[in-house]
Amino acid sequence: MKRIKNKLNNALNFVNKGHLKQAEILYLECLDKIEDKQSSIYKQAMHGLGFIKSELGQFKEASKLYIALLYIARDKGDKEDEALAYHQLGMVERLSGNIEKALHYFAKEYEIYHDTFPEFHLGFAVNLYERGKTCLLQNELTEAQYFIEDSLNHGEKTGEPIVVGCTHRDLGHIFQLNGEKKKAMIHYKYALDAFQRAEDSQAIKDIERKMANL
Fold this sequence. Notes:
With about 210 residues, the chain is mainly alpha-helical. It has helices at about 1-15, 20-35, 40-55, 60-75, 80-95, 100-115, 120-135, 140-160, 160-175, 180-200, 200-214. The radius of gyration is 19 Å and the shape is globular.
């Protein structure tokens, strides 16, 4: 067990360094050795491999992994893991260009939070943000604004500045696309303040660039 955990840690280190193929090999080795298919380390390896497959553009393989995780969660009655599996399936479908399917999975995730975790504001914020981003890909600005504004409402209750910063940044982008530059600048300023509180230098540079080009 200790060797498997070490391999999982090494795989994550490879992911963080961008060495995806090396990480993939380690995750596969772990999955081959883990006998308990409902254990936390098995699910950790499955999620890791699913991420690798998505990053490599192997979307069908990624989807199969997350569907397997969805079934595991259902069998255990674990609503939190079920919601996570739906979220990851939504991300995979969006990356592969299946927008309607992505929105369907995100909606299923939202239902679980609504019915089971009504105070899980971070979960709501992330879910609604991703739904808004998905609508943006289709240039559906009204729907995107609706989702991201709702995400901001939940995000402000989390106390997480990154969440608040991302939602304000994308609202600024939407208003900019609509030609409403004053509203866009207001949101960019809020985003800048949030990213400064989070000390996210890359996000700060990105916002300052957007404000300078507005």
